[in-house]
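stage 2 :: seqdesign
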């Protein structure tokens, strides 16, 4: 069994949940302190001590330093048209007087609401944008490889989402690249990067790529499958999946910044901001599968599978991630979070299951064979042919008797 996600073997065998929020120690790179509180909660407490007026001054100074005199592009903002990137780019352009070139690494399959939001972002928000569409045939194969060997078909999107912006910055000689939030600090991960202004290029691989680069994925595919061969791609197809050369970026003095360093990051506030300024609309099909929210990432038909696979691998899904952030923001209590986790975490993303299988060119049997490959023994147990989480955050409080059926059984046709 070949798995190239290096995070899986490093999971602690004893599952512990944060005492303050809903996340567990199974989240990759997370650290809980001696009192059982996770890094993101601790970081949130220290965020309240941050002088945001001073941080804004830093932002203003940064913009002064990088703003172009003649009005040419001076900052690259990777943007999906979602609430967070809309907030970042709009703020930089209209409040801080920058000249952003927004760039978009295309989703696998746009949802209709996702495409509408993207169009509105350009039309209502008022932005220049470059969108990169991948070689679709190759991208599908990469996604299948990533699903099989990394346990996340989403990974080829991640490669380009990070890299494309820097290729464009380098090409157009733009020195500043602005992302939204520091995911490690906001959703709990590696404390080494909590207080940084941007991700150092040297640790991109372990932080963003699960320790598996595009080259690792391709090599694994060539060696272990009969559906992927060297005829499926050439070097030009790989361009935007690969991170640009670190030395080249350093020579050109290109820097990486997170808006969450300069501005207090509250997803709900970003949502209101995007509704007001870029014509953003919430999900009109009702809530997003796997969670209770209507405004979380909704650009891509397949993003539900990204969270579902995280649920399989780590025992914590999208509702865990959403509630943990909301508990820290003081919008809900931990008890409410636990109820929401029990109700929604791990819900199977059935709405686009057929499209997902077609996209990857696999059948249901293959889908479930791969899913089961990613269930660790310390997280899952099988009783009467039904998979069950060994331990949940709601065991002690709500009981583990009426686990929602979607957690443990294959959905009906
Ligand atoms: Zn926590």
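stage 2 :: out
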């Amino acid at each position: 069994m070949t798995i190239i996600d290096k995070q899986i073997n490093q999971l602690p065998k004893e599952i512990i949940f944060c005492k303050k929020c809903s996340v567990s120690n199974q989240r990759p790179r997370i650290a809980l302190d001696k009192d059982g509180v996770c890094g993101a909660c601790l970081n949130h407490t220290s965020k309240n001590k941050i002088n945001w007026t001073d941080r804004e001054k830093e932002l203003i100074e940064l913009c002064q330093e990088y703003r172009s005199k003649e009005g040419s592009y001076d900052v690259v903002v990777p943007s999906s048209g979602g609430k967070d990137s809309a907030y970042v780019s709009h703020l930089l352009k209209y409040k801080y007087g920058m000249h952003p070139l927004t760039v978009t690494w295309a989703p696998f399959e746009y949802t209709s609401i996702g495409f509408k939001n993207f169009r509105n972002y350009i039309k209502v928000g008022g932005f220049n944008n470059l969108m990169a569409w991948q070689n679709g045939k190759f991208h599908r194969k990469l996604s299948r490889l990533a699903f099989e060997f990394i346990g996340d078909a989403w990974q080829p999107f991640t490669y380009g989402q990070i890299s494309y912006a820097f290729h464009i910055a380098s090409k157009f000689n733009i020195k500043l690249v602005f992302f939204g939030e520091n995911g490690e600090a906001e959703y709990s991960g590696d404390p080494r990067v909590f207080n940084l202004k941007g991700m150092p290029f040297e640790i991109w691989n372990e932080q963003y790529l699960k320790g598996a680069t595009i080259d690792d994925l391709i090599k694994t595919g060539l060696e272990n499958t009969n559906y992927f061969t060297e005829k499926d791609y050439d070097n030009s197809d790989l361009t935007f999946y690969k991170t640009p050369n670190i030395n080249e970026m350093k020579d050109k003095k290109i820097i990486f910044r997170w808006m969450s360093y300069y501005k207090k990051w509250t997803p709900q506030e970003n949502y209101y901001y995007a509704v007001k300024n870029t014509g953003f609309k919430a999900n009109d099909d009702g809530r997003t599968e796997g969670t209770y929210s209507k405004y979380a990432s909704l650009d891509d038909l397949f993003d539900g599978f990204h969270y579902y696979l995280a649920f399989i691998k780590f025992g914590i899904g999208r509702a865990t991630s959403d509630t943990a952030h909301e508990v820290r923001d003081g919008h809900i209590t931990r008890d409410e979070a636990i109820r929401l986790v029990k109700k929604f975490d791990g819900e199977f993303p059935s709405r686009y299951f057929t499209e997902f299988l077609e996209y990857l060119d696999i059948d249901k049997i293959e889908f479930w064979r791969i899913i089961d490959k990613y269930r660790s023994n310390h997280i899952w147990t099988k009783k009467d042919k039904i998979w069950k989480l060994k331990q949940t955050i709601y065991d002690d409080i709500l009981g583990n008797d009426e686990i929602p059926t979607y957690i443990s059984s294959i959905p009906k046709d």
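stage 3 :: structure notes
- The chain has one domain: 1-413.
- Residues 18, 20-21, 23, 37-38, 40-41 surround zinc ion (CB under 6 Å).
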